[in-house]
Amino acid sequence: MKKYCFALDLVDDAKLIEEYKKYHENVWPEIIDSIKDAGIVDAEIYLVQNRLFMIVEGDDNFSLEKKSEMDSKNETVQKWETLMWKYQQALPGSKPGEKWQLMERVFKL
After folding, report:
1. What is the CATH number of domain 2-102?
2. pLDDT value, residue 32
3. Domain parsing of the chain, residue ranges
4. What would the 3-class secondary structure string for 76-99 be?
5. Which of 1, 53, 66, 80 has its CA 20 to 30 Å from the CA of residue 37?
6. Contact present, 54 and 5 (Cβ < 8 Å)
7. Residue 44 phi, psi dihedral angles, 5° rounding
8. 2, 62 contact by CB (below 8 A)
């Protein structure tokens, strides 16, 4: 099992943050399927203020590159990502269009 942690900010607007949370109460089934098809076995997103933290666990065959390639070819995933970009904003220092930033683990018990 592989574990990845990511960070991303939301637009700092209470109404938009609530809308984003509502979308994640009922994620489109095709998005859930695309996540599972890529080899992700568990995923969680946490929120504090307007900062998101996502934990993803993939099976032994999972790779970020493969997931990215699959997403780029999936029209529904592209629609979802375009919709979510209304609520999201890149972290400072991100490249243009770059969303979730892979976090570096600095401690493990």
Report:
1. 3.30.70.100
2. 98
3. 2-102
4. HHHHHHHHHHCCEECCCCCCCCCC
5. 53
6. yes
7. -140, 145
8. yes
